[in-house]
Design a protein that fits this description.
Blueprint: H1 11-16, H2 20-42, H3 45-61, H4 72-98, H5 114-124, H6 128-139, H7 144-151, H8 155-174
Length: 175
């Protein structure tokens, strides 16, 4: 099938057949969103790049068998988010072993305003899953129904989690 309107019709089948051009088009279309989501989840640019690269490697090695190719973006974001969580967990475990008594709170950066420093600290205190939820909504601009499909929740569940999470972040920011 030929691509239409810049869509991904048949592109997954082409990637499955090891079509480098099709793979490159997918990377061009989705890499930035995947990297941003990974960064929000793990809070580290290097880890985010590694997680994104791991997701692309997984696609190349073992492409998903999707009945609906429009779910490919969701699959890519899910794989990238999982990779980011795993890498962040590994790094935290290593940091805990290395600095058992030290508190892992981000040091204030002099080039940032106090509100941004407060926000960074508040975000560092929430789980990677919660950061993923924020990233999907506010970084990638996904709607509650889209996020619900992505995370396997109801749209109302997404809205409820976001409300509660934002309320907690406001409390953290006020401290």
């Amino acid at each position: 099938m030929a691509e239409s309107n810049g869509g991904s019709s048949g592109i997954l089948a082409r990637v499955t057949r090891r079509d480098h051009l099709a793979f490159t088009r997918l990377v061009e279309a989705h890499d930035a969103d995947m990297a941003r989501l990974c960064f929000v989840i793990c809070g580290d640019l290097e880890l985010a790049r590694d997680a994104t690269q791991n997701a692309w490697q997984r696609l190349w090695r073992d492409p998903p068998r999707l009945n609906d190719e429009s779910r490919l973006r969701s699959w890519l974001l899910t794989v990238a988010a999982n990779e980011a969580r795993q890498l962040a967990r590994r790094r935290r475990r290593g940091a805990i072993l290395e600095h058992r008594s030290a508190r892992s709170e981000p040091a204030p950066r002099p080039d940032l305003g106090i509100e941004r420093v407060d926000l960074e600290r508040a975000l560092a205190r929430i789980s990677p899953d919660e950061r993923e939820l924020l990233g999907l909504r506010y970084l990638l601009g996904m709607s509650s129904p889209e996020i619900a499909t992505q995370l396997g929740l109801s749209a109302e569940g997404v809205r409820t989690r976001l409300r509660r999470l934002l309320a907690r972040l406001r409390v953290e920011m006020d401290r």
